[in-house]
Amino acid sequence: MTYALGIDVSKAKLAAALLKADGKYRSKVFSNDMADFKGLLQWIAANVPTGKADVHVCMEATGSYHEALALFLSDQGIAVSVVNPLLVKRFIEVDRVRNKTDEGDAKSLARFCQMTRPELWEAPSVGVRTLQALVLRLDTLQEMRQGELNRLDVAHASVQQSMRDVIVGLERSIRDVQAQIRQTIDDDPDLRQRSTLLESIPGLGDRTIPQLLAYIGRPERFKTVKALIAYAALAPLIRQSGTSLNKHKGTHPQGHRDLRSALYFPAMVAGKHNPLVAVFWQRLKAQGKPGKVIVVACMHKLLAIAYGVLKSGKPFNPDHLKAQMA
Fold first, then answer.
1. CB count, 10 Å around CB of 221?
2. For residues 49 and 45, what is the distance between their CA atoms, to the nearest angstrom?
3. How many other β-carbons are positioned within 10 Å of the β-carbon of residue 103?
4. Strand partners, 81
5. Is the full-model pTM beyond 0.90?
6. Checking DSSP bridges between strand 25-31 and strand 13-19, what pairing results, if any?
């Protein structure tokens, strides 16, 4: 592919930089919405005379902000890579780029793409896309309901009935979306099989399993459990240099925070009812580890168990998993 297109993605906008074979750039800023995705596609067509098959797009994994664009471009038959922001940061440092701007980051992404030819991103299936949208909608509705419940206790009597009516409507919508989630999983053979596997793991329930199915997608896209751990923002943040600096500062901030959040309460349940996680929990407690450290470590352990079950295609078996993790 002759053209490397770097796109710096933020919540509101996309900074695009097209690097041509002669080393020159074409840059433009677009809105991060579906209407301007089509404008981006037209801009690519206008600047790539050999056609979209000659373009390799590179963007950073930025939480959920990049996902809609990556899906759109992939559906249009354009090669897309979604790369670890840390790799790009290190590349920029080696490239000696001093000023940080959106356009500059997009150009660095284009150069990174041209020089390293990163692995192509795999678009999720239609079933997973549907599940992702439903899980996101369910989270939004539940947050709205909780907000109204919190306000109800202190609201003036004149508006309380109105708030109760809203809560009833939200609860009805929540039940409808939950039913759609169950139906989506049941209608998709792959999702149904993976859901059954996850159901065998103590600590994972009806709320968490759809979230894991939506956020992880096909487990095969993660070559190792460490890759999934890093994707879930559960990899430790370590700073070491010589003898004067040796710090472990919690988890790394980069990654899929919704996936990490989805594991918090299941890890606490698994700490009591999952034989592997419970033993691990007690060992850390005996070592005097703080409660939050124990919970995060058990989130890490629970996700590793889920990965092992999904990759093997076999239900949870403590003895089998002990041997795998030894």
1. 14
2. 7
3. 17
4. 58
5. no
6. antiparallel
Among 215, 200, 209, 203, which residue's Cα sits nearest to residue 295? 203
Which pLDDT tens digit goes with each residue over 59-112?
988 767 788 899 999 999 999 999 888 788 888 777 766 667 888 889 999 999
Residues 179-190: pLDDT tens digits? Answer: 999 999 999 999
What type of residue is 288?
Answer: G
**Cα separation, 152 vs 138, whole angstroms:** 21
Residue 241's pLDDT is what? 40
Q: What is the dihedral of CA 60, 64, 66, 69, to 10 degrees?
A: 160
**Which pairs from 283-287 meet CB under 8 Å and 24+ separation?**
none
Quick one: tokens of 145?
């309901």
**HEC letters along the chain:** CCEEEEEEECCCEEEEEEECCCCCEEEEEEECCHHHHHHHHHHHHHHCCCCHHHEEEEEECCCCCCHHHHHHHHHCCCEEEEECHHHHHHHHHHCCCCCCCHHHHHHHHHHHHHHHCCCCCCCCCHHHHHHHHHHHHHHHHHHHHHHHHHHHCCCCHHHHHHHHHHHHHHHHHHHHHHHHHHHHHHHCHHHHHHHHHHHCCCCCCCCHHHHHHHHHCCHHHCCCHHHHHHHCCCCEEEEEECCCEEEEEEECCCCCHHHHHHCHHHHHHHHHHCHHHHHHHHHHHHCCCCHHHHHHHHHHHHHHHHHHHHHHCCCCCHHHHHHHHC
User: Hey, what long-range contacts does 316-324 have (CB within 8 A, 24 or more apart)?
Assistant: 316/197, 316/200, 316/201, 316/202, 318/275, 318/276, 321/276, 322/276
- CB 103 within 8 Å of CB 27: yes
Distance CA 37, CA 49 (A): 19
